[in-house]
Amino acid sequence: MKIIGIVLLVLCFLITLALGAQNQEVVHFNYLVAQGEFRLSLLLGVVFGTGFALGWLICGMLYLKARMSAAMLKKQVNKQRQELDKLRIDPVKE
């Protein structure tokens, strides 16, 4: 599964490089704070890199949250298992 992900990542990178090599014209770009003249290849690379970084950041945070939740639940299960084992060993009081 990791190999497929790495291959897709390399493929996306190569596609970005190919698009950048074919698009050397200068474009006018308006963004929130200002505006500027950029080469289309540079603009594509920056947007791709920013999207990639944001995607990894969001997925990383969700993964970390899931791992923390799983660790907390495992701890709770182990505690309950110890209590159950203790109750099974102790004789019933009447």
Short structural description:
The protein is mainly alpha-helical and 94 residues long. The protein is built from two helices and two strands, in the order αββα. The radius of gyration is 26 Å and the shape is elongated.
Rg (C-alpha, Å): 26 Å
Kindly report the spatial arrangement of strands forming the biggest sheet: 1-2
Number of helices: 2
Oligomer: single chain
Q: Span from first to last CA?
A: 57 Å
Strand proportion, as a percent range, falls in: 5-15%
Largest sheet: 2 strands, antiparallel
Q: Which blocks of ≥5 consecutive residues have pLDDT under 50?
A: none
Helix content: over 70%
Give the H and E element order.
HEEH
> Which whole number gives the mean pLDDT?
88
User: Shape from CA axes?
Assistant: elongated
| Structural class category | mainly alpha
How many distinct folded domains? 1
Number of strands: 2
Write the layout of secondary structure elements.
Blueprint: H1 2-22, E1 26-30, E2 35-39, H2 40-89
Helix pairs in contact: 1-2
Q: Would you kindly provide a written description of the structure presented here, covering whatever features stand out?
A:
The protein contains 2 helices and 2 strands, in the order H-E-E-H. It starts with a helix and ends in a 5-residue tail after the last helix. It has helices at residues 2-22, 40-89, and strands at 26-30, 35-39. Helix 1 (2-22) packs antiparallel against helix 2 (40-89). It is found in: Cell inner membrane. Its main location: membrane. This is Probable lipopolysaccharide assembly protein A. Keywords: Cell inner membrane, Cell membrane, Membrane, Transmembrane, Transmembrane helix.
